[in-house]
């Protein structure tokens, strides 16, 4: 039986899937199976797989379209490994990603999920210079109410037991399903972090949601679900969660070049938690909005790219 099951949901992603699978096959840790869940693709995913994938560890499971959560759930149900790694079909892993995560779980039986830092790449697999780095570990439930430290669904290695105890992904959530799952796991297990950028998250138009009303609705569902079973002494954190949620959506609006929508979410954040005006995140957001209003989006983008390059270089030096 393989130690790790890698679950790759794939929907019309044949343009990226070959590179993604190669990044798994290039892992220094070799005791794994790969389950590619063809989620009702209308491109040439099945034909490409049949003609090109010869490694017996890689299997294709085709189904009618059930969405990201449904595809992940199918993979988890078929998985035979003790540990489950999720990987979106357009993202990549550094070669030592699984090895370091497996070693962490083997050495820390109380940990249910281990994540790493994330480096962002563009649609051509070139680094953008930005690294998403969080340090939260141990009991991270409260932290997850404000920020998704795991950063992406391609990041975590999770004990199979976690899904047995907290259930599968919610197929009714079309966004924020990741944080919903991490919160459920964090309510019962400790988290650990590998402080290296071992996941390469691809940014392209296909994975940038612009439907903010749906995102807001799903985020509210996740927050209310999390607090439904929370002890009364921490219910005051609900407003903090909503404040952080609106700052998150404001940044999403910036990414979509909609600074007017970003202003709206910034106002909502302060309505929920006025003291956010003193936070570093709020100040950075306000600077971003001002730069876009005064000089345009391209000027802001040039500034942010330079900032990401400098901070990314510093984080890589720290990791080494």
UniProtKB/TrEMBL annotation:
Superkingdom to which the source organism belongs: Bacteria
InterPro entries hit by this protein: Glyco_trans_2-like, Glycosyltransf_2, Nucleotide-diphossugar_trans
Start and end residues of each Glycosyltransferase 2-like domain: 5-166
The protein's name: Glycosyltransferase family 2 protein
Source organism (scientific name): Anabaena subtropica FACHB-260
């Amino acid at each position: 039986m393989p130690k790790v099951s890698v679950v790759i949901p794939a929907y019309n992603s044949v343009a990226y899937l070959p590179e993604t699978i190669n990044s798994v096959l290039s892992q220094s840790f070799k005791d794994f199976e790969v389950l590619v869940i063809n989620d009702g693709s209308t491109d040439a995913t099945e034909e490409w797989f049949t003609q090109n994938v010869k490694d017996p560890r890689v299997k294709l499971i085709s189904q009618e379209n059930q969405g990201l959560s449904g595809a992940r759930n199918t993979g988890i149900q078929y998985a035979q490994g003790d540990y489950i790694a999720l990987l979106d079909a357009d993202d990549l892993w550094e070669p030592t990603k699984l090895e370091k995560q497996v070693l962490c779980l083997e050495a820390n039986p109380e940990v249910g999920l281990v994540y790493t830092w994330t480096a962002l790449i563009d649609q051509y697999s070139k680094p953008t210079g930005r690294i998403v780095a969080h340090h939260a570990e141990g009991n991270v439930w409260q932290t997850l109410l404000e920020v998704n430290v795991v950063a992406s669904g391609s990041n975590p290695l999770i004990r199979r037991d976690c899904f047995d105890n907290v259930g599968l992904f919610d197929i009714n959530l079309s966004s924020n399903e990741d944080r919903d799952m991490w919160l459920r796991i964090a309510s019962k297990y400790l988290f650990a972090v590998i402080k290296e950028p071992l996941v390469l998250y691809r940014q392209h138009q296909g994975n940038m949601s612009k439907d903010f009303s749906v995102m807001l609705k799903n985020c509210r569902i996740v927050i209310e679900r999390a607090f439904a079973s929370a002890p009364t002494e921490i219910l005051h954190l609900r407003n903090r969660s909503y404040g952080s949620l609106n700052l998150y959506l404001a940044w999403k609006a910036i990414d979509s070049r909609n600074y007017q929508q970003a202003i709206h979410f910034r106002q909502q954040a302060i309505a929920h938690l006025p003291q956010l005006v003193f936070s570093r995140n709020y100040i950075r957001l306000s600077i971003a909005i001002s730069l876009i209003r005064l000089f345009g989006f391209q000027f802001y983008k040039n500034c942010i790219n330079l900032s990401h390059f400098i901070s990314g270089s510093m984080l890589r030096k720290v990791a080494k």
